Amino acid sequence: MKEKDIEKNTTLTELSDKFGQKYGKDYWRSLEALSQTEEFQQAVQNEFKESPVEWENSLNRRHFLQIMGASLALAGLNACTKQPAEKIIPHVIAPEKITLGKPLFFATSFVLSGYACGVLAESHEGRPTKIEGNPEHPASLGATDIFAQASILNLYDPDRSQVIKNIGQFSSWEAFLNLLRTQLEAQSGKNGAGIRILTETVTSPTLAAQLKTFLKKYPSAKWHQYEPVNRDNVKLGSQLAFGQYVETQYHLENADVALSLDGDFFSGMPGSLVHARKFGERRKVDGHHAQMNRLYAVESSLTLTGAMADHRLAMKAGDVLTFAQDLAYQLNATKEKSQHNKGVAGKKWMDALVRDLKSNSGKCVVIPGEFQAPEVHYLAHAINKALGNIGKTVRYTKSVEASPTVQNNSIRELTDDMKNGLVEFLVILGGNPLFNAPADLNFGEKLKTVKTRVHVSPEENETSEWCHWQIPQSHYLESWSDARAFDGAASIIQPLIAPLYASKSFHEIMAALNDQAGKSDYEIVREYWLSQLKKGDFERSWQIALHDGVVAGTAFPGISPTLRAFNLAPQEAEKGLEVVFRPDPNIWDGRFANNGWLQELPKPISKLTWDNAAIISPASARVHGLENGQSIEIKRNNTSIKAPVWIVPGQANETITLYLGYGRIKTGKVGANAGVNIFPLKTSDGKWSASGISVKATKEQVELASTQDHGSMEGRHLVRESSLADYVAHPELFHEMGHEPDPEMSLYPPYKYDGYAWGMVVDLNACTGCNACTVACQSENNIPIVGKEETLKGREMHWIRVDRYYTGDENNPEVAHQPVMCMHCEDAPCEVVCPVAATTHSDEGLNEMTYNRCVGTRYCSNNCPYKVRRFNFFKYADYITESAKLMHNPDVTVRFRGVMEKCTYCVQRISSARIKAKKEDRSIQDGDIVTACQQVCPTDAIIFGDINDENSRVAKAKAEHRDYGLLAELGTRPRTSYLAKLRNPNPELIES
Amino acid sequence: MSQLFHPSSNAIAKVSIFGSVFFVGFAAWVLLAIERSSYVTQAQVVVEQPVPFSHRHHVAQLGIDCRYCHTSVEESSFAGIPATKTCMTCHSQIHTTADILEPVRESWQTGKSLEWVRVHDLPDFVYFNHSIHVKKGIGCESCHGPVGEMALTWREHSLNMEWCLECHRAPEKFVRPREFVFDLNWKAGKDKKTLSDSLVQAYHIESLTNCSICHR
To answer: Does A82 touch chain B (CB under 8 A)?
Structure first.
């Protein structure tokens, strides 16, 4: 039975019946699971949903014996093949500092929408293979997000733009320089009045300096900035509040109470990794420390922040302003209150929140969502001021952007100029405005009026098609640059590899525009910093900056802008349906559309892969008669799009959330034609939500590959949680929730671990469900992607899946995330059923998977209660693409068809730590081995180490009262255990 | 009713049944023998190289230390194959016109690497680390054989898993003092047992036979 059929057969009546009953703390992943339809049960029981090859003919006994006989004979001969000869190709002159076989790490920075996150890139013999966070960088603190992890795949993407093209034909850099020369000569008479440069958000000091130099020479030329996921509302809000663009930083380490206003400060926002780390530190509860912060979230669609909240209120995006106005009024931050009688939040909730914030003055923080209206930002500034949070939990600096611009206005100006025929020569540095500029500007049409159009981008996209020149842009691991982090700290971006293709960096393009063609980006960046770092020995400061990944002393100092008065007209509650636009959690504004890792990564809440959808609440779906996968037509301002519905509990009623970035037409093989393009509905008013839309249901069904029911563990008590108060009163309560059989009951003799005993603990209280572990694991362990068709059959290969559970009311459920990887059971069910001993138990407690022994019976997976084993039904790994070969981690086998695989606790890292320790004649110390998932985790929720060492972090965590084993009642004695989740509800809001 | 089968059928049937057991056993033995033969393992087979490099000449006759060319053997998993520059340190001075060294000079002049054929080629799913074996007192000779006698290089051992396990199960049989790891003429003396036992203790040598020690 296919997923689709289940979805069709789950009627909403059944669900309503189910909700009519009173239930306790039951966890469910999907509405289908909650209603427990017969079809759902069947799908869960049928682990291998379809056989890889359908057998067309009916098979008789004779035929079977013939085939088996031939197979056996051939299988025997298989061993008689000789290994093909392999070449060793040494250097001609060995480079310094490279020891073949040993990786090197270089500090560099990954930049998303202008904001830098410091990373350490691992290089094997000159090939970048893995991205790690840089512990010394203020925006990373050792962690990264999914985008930085997956950025390595973009470098090796075979669909990258590879050569300079002129009108679709191969051209050359020299030809392009000729063009520049003629264009600039023609423009020099009129001060460059016909020249426009369009960039995305620029924080790079060097690029900004180059642009300034250019504009000095051509004063009538203009520089525009635009990207669709911009921070215009933040800037406009800051303008309202302070009359200038300031950057707001939130210090969650000082916050006892936090309120999120329809934002997601755990992902996507500048500084989100720091927010997560600091927030997570305040969620760490151990025997000595039993205090936690409290998080309130008011939001339209369920985000990671909302999922972590102790109290969450689902509210239309358009109502958040009304809510903020009432909140500000009650906190004496403003004088006006909304026109809503009872308040959109309800009196009880609002009063409790207000009291909690007031009693924590100076120790609380209100964080507005980037996509909320400027007025909400104003009110948040006012509230934070009224609560005395400035300087404590909130800090202001000058803007991190080199030239802060309201980007919607900037792109409008550019299109107006194009319409009026003022633009003769347009250079687009990055971005894809043809795909993602506000629909009402009709950018594509206007673009045609420009005589010469140049586009520099990493891939040939929709915009490239309409530009005369397409110049491949170098990846950040191929070129020198710099950028600023959310706190202003500048980092030098250093390459690890020479450009794979004939690509150029923005700096080289700008140098060419500045009559400095031929200057390398290294010289350009170095020269800029030579002019900046004047104190002391430059060479030394430069080397330190490169080594540390951050230029010392460049973080911006705090400022104290004065809050201006602003009278906001009393707001009303929104009426009717609204649409909410958000960047896609995985592919952002579409720039990562061709990144298979991100496409196949189950999105944090919806668990959708390879598609976007119209997210709608269960109640609204019932009102409008919609079901999962059903296509609806959404109409706004005479433009309509068709998108499939996906019902997500926790979504605000009468709100449809649409994730941007999908529906790309011109991109690589992976991303083309996946999902629905939302941009036609997004206009230049800069609003991220809109009312006054109409929705029409159609009869079309779209098959959506959601993994939310894959690997179901069938409703057992997998997540254990309680309130902080209950836990403090009864520390043993988590152990009482389950019962573990006596290990003596096992028929097998117990293992003895004399040396190391590796184990892992996952703190569910800290996990935000951000998925970074899944991508980091994929990158470290050469895990392939399988595509949408295979994902629909439940064959995705991720070694860690992050299960998302709901509990409680379908309209506003509580959420828990649970990363599940191989548990490395002491009494592992998989080991005893393997007929060829391909999965065995090691002396250190690892459940080992030996690929070269595996014959693919899949018995192990069948017998695994955690459903963490992954089978290569086909040759998923890419053995063909030359560039993909470079990306593989050389310390991990690339698995072939017919082989089972699973989490190894990063055994290659254990091996390398063991060898290092042995060479130094010592034992492995706590912290020597850091698994890929542990390393990347923004909240430090994953702890790995030797449980035989009493002083190790992991042993201490396992001694906590909160520690429990997943499905330990089965007697598997899992090595990976979990620390139960705690919530810290406001006593005033606890329902009796 | 006449007999359907001739009386000799009994004998034939018996012989066939017993014979088939022997036949299957024989076939299995043949397969295993082929698997271990140098035809499959390539052990003892000289590998043709772009330059007929003689370890006998360089190591045994000239006395060049292994680490002069295999520079990373003590640090890394990979022992290292010398860069052309290493060859040219001597061969820019001696045998500067020798025909057999033409590929080396060509590589030096053109900047294009020499392409050696791998002699000791483990399967891709096996992860071997030179540095730890050297550190634990396993001599080059233990795996690579009498390199000092090889005018042309060959693989001494099969490199089959059972061969690896011979040592991993009983490292005391092969361990030698660290200072003699690169010594191709070292022989254990009479008190071999006492020596190896003391070395196993001194070097903290464990018998590591878990799958993930080599396979991952």
So the answer is: yes
A937 in any annotated domain: yes
Helix (H) or strand (E) holding A701: strand A694-701
Under DSSP, is residue A678 helix (H, G, I), strand (E, B) or coil? coil
* Residues with Cβ within 8 Å of residue A886, at least 6 apart in sequence: A127, A156
Same domain, A681 and A737: no
Domain that holds residue A317: 246-398
CATH of residue A867: 3.30.70.20
Structural domain ending residue among the three candidates A648, A680, A706: A706
Strand ranges in A209-293 using DSSP code E only, listed in sequence order:
222-225, 246-250, 257-261
Q: Which of A421-435, A706-720, A870-884, A897-911 has the lowest mean pLDDT?
A: A706-720
User: Looking at the complex, does the CB of residue A76 fall below 8 Å from at least one CB of chain B?
Assistant: yes
Residues A668 and A773 in one domain: no
Any B CB within 8 A of A90 CB: yes
- Mean pLDDT for chain A? 89
B1 to chain A, minimum CA–CA distance in Å?
A: 33
pLDDT at A266 over 90: yes
Which whole number is the average pLDDT over B48-76? Answer: 93
Q: A904 in contact with B at a CB cutoff of 8 Å?
A: yes
**Domain regions of chain B by residue span:** 8-36, 55-81+120-214, 82-115
Average pLDDT over residues B96-114: 93
Q: How far is CA A705 from CA A158, A656, A667, A698, in A?
A: 25, 19, 21, 20
Closest CA to A323 of A151, A579, A572, A567: A572
Residue of A nearest to B126 (CA): A893
pLDDT tens digits, A843-882:
999 999 999 999 999 999 999 999 999 999 999 998 888 8
What are the φ and ψ backbone dihedral angles of B29, each rounded to 5 degrees? -60, -40
DSSP assigned state of B57: I
Tally of domains within chain A: 4
A979 in the same domain as A897:
yes
The 10s digit of each residue's pLDDT in A641-650 is 999 999 999 9
Please indicate, yes or no, whether residues A670 and A733 belong to a single structural domain of this protein. no
* pLDDT, tens digit, 9 for 90 and up, residues A59-74: 677 776 776 766 666 6
Question: Cβ contacts (< 8 Å) between B129 and chain A: which residues?
Answer: 911, 915
What is the CATH number for A263?
3.40.228.10
Taking CA atoms, what residue in A is nearest to B37? A80
Same domain, A783 and A728: yes
Within 10 Å of residue A980's Cβ, how many Cβ atoms? Answer: 23
Distance CA A606, CA A609 (A): 9
Q: What confidence score (pLDDT) does residue A22 get?
A: 32
CA of A83, closest CA in chain B: separation in Å?
A: 8
Measure in Å the smallest separation between the Cα of A904 and chain B Cα atoms. 8
Q: What is the pLDDT of residue A76?
A: 53
CB < 8 Å to A94, chain B: 71, 83, 85-86
State residue A74's pLDDT score: 61
Of A79, A89, A904, the CB nearest to B35: A79
Q: Clarify whether residues A775 and A914 are in a common domain.
A: yes
A768 assigned to some structural domain = yes
Contact A91 B135 (CB under 8 A): no
Number of Cβ within 10 Å of residue A306's Cβ equals 26
CA distance A569 to A269: 29
Please report whether residue A466 resides in a domain: no
Shared domain for A624 and A730, answered yes or no, is no
Distance from CA of B120 to the nearest CA of A (A): 10
Residue range A612-640: mean pLDDT, rounded: 92
Is pLDDT above 80 for A82?
Answer: no
Binned at pLDDT 50, 70 and 90, residue A18 comes out as very low
Is A846's CB within 8 Å of B210's CB? yes
Average the pLDDT over A940-965 and give the result: 93
Q: Are residues A693 and A776 in the same domain?
A: no
Which token pair is B152? 């042309």
Give the distance from residue B170's alpha carbon to the nearest chain A alpha carbon, in angstroms: 17
Domain boundary residue, one of A398, A429, A452: A398
